[in-house]
Structure formats: structure tokens, C-alpha cells
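Bug #77: duplicate submission created two jobs. Keeping one. Sequence:
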Amino acid sequence: MMVSMTYSRQRLRPAITGAFFGVAAAVGLLDAAGSKAMAFPVEVQSCFDKVTFDAPPKRPVVNDFNMVQTVLDMGLIDRFVGVAGIGGVAKGVDDPEGRLARVPQFSERYPTTEAILGQDADFYFAGWQYGFSEASGVTPKKLDDLGVKTYVLYESCIRIGPRPPISMDTMYADALALGRIFDVTPKAEAMVADFRKRVAAVTERTAQAKRRPRIMYCGDCNSDTPPRSIGAEGMPRHLFNLAGGENIFDDIKDSYVPVSWDAVIERDPEWIVISNPRIPPEQSIAYLTSAPALRNVSAVKNRNFLFMSYQERSPSTRNVQALERLARAVHPELFKD
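Kept job's structure:
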């Protein structure tokens, strides 16, 4: 078991050295692009509604790892008066300059309406099931009635209605919308342009793949409890496709869904992508490699595990970084240089 775990940790290391340098370069582009004032008001599409902003938000708040990371990478975090949803595991957000430490964390998990209002917030960036919920009563309409404007993570709109199939444009739309809302459109456009170049550099190679390995996204994979995986509408599925693989649950027309271990065994993934910000990847690997029923699953036999952070596998400015790592892991023959 010790040999297996040591090997697994090696597989969990980034598949390319300097994986974070791509984002650093993008942030450099942001600085170089500068920012010229836009004419307000501006109107942005937020799911199936249009939201008008008369000026950039003065007291914005944001929820969850992926959206906090996006705000950080876009150089906007210093404008925010509060963050939520990252519960005591802020180390899960990549913040080498320590800027996040200066922003109060006003709710460990998803905030209530009262908690948002308690920050005297005038803007809330979150997603459906990433902070918005009809069950909790935290909705864009309710907050708008209380004087708080919102922007909804585009990928999450699938939870309340049909949207176009998942793509990198789904994530780009968020960056460009935030650029307009915060009057940093040139910076947002520079970041998206850099992302497009990096994605093209990957897909030019993966298009040459002779076969497409079967890949499973595995959340909550540390016990006998049925795991969560990804259907055809989640960002991990799109990353798998761009990286030259195929999602084993592509027949499920949804994003994050519970599946059975029997289905995992039947579909026999060749790679397992592990992701959960509150469960150490070693715990998941320990379960996967010790469960008797899983011993013949190809990914388990070959110890083909790759860890993605929450923000890498959820829509955020770290999706391209995740794609680069995944493509090099599953198709090393195409990235020998």
C-alpha cells in the first residue's frame, strides 16, 4: 500500500512544470493592457436576464473557490469587501501575493441573504448551486429587490433552464462580463485572448491523438457512498474532450451528478480525475486502491490519477491551466518537447 500511495502522489504532481506561469503571464497581459474608461450604464447578460450597471460596484462580494480565483486572477480582489464559500480552506485558492488575506471571509459556506446584506454589499457574484438557490431564498431577483445587483456564473444557468452546450466560451463569457461590470474590459479581453491561444496550442496536438482514453471525474471518491461525477454539461467533460479523451458519463445530459460504483466498473475509466477541496486527494486514492470491487478498473490498476483543484475543474480562469496538465498526462506522446 505504501508503494501505491507513493506512486499516486507522483501522478498527482502537475504534468507540466510551471503550470501557474500561464496565469501569471495572463495577469501580466492584464497589466500591460491597461484600462480605459467605458461609458456607463452598461448592460450584461446574466443567465436569462439582462442586468444594467450605472457604475462599477463599490461594495462587491463573491462566493466559492472558482469565482474567488477568477476575481483574484483578474486583479479585482482589492475592490471586494467580502468573500464566502471557501470555509477555512482558503489555501485551496492560489494567491501567492496574499491579497485574499486582506478581504474578510464573511461566510464559511454559502451565505444567506442576511449575511450578504450585512456586508452592505451592492453586488454579488455567484452561481446556481454555487451560492444562489431557490431553496435558500438567495436569488438574483430577491437580491435585486433589496438593492444588490448580481452576476450569475454562466455555466450554472443549466440549473434553471437550457443554455448552449458547455465550451470554453462559457468561461470566457464570465471574464468578459466582469470586465464590463468593473470597467476593465481591455484587461479581460487580453486575458481571454491569451486563453484562446493556449487552448489552440493544446488542441492542435490532441487532434492528432490516435485514440481517446476514457476519463472519469470523481468527486467524493473516498468511501463506499456513490460518487459524484460529470455528465455532458459540466466543465470537466469539456476539458476531457479538448485534452483528447472522452467522458465516461457523456450520456447523462447534466453537469454534476451522483453515479453508482457499478456504473464506474462497467465503464472502466482509464484515467480518474479527483477533485474535492475538502477531502485530501490521498484519501480518495487510498479508497480507490483498496476497494476490492475496483481492483480491475483500468485507472486503478495503472494508478492513473490526476488531481484538479476546485477552481481548475469549475468554470474559472484556471480551466486552461487544467487543460494543459490533463492533455500532457493522458497524451504524453504528443507533448514530448
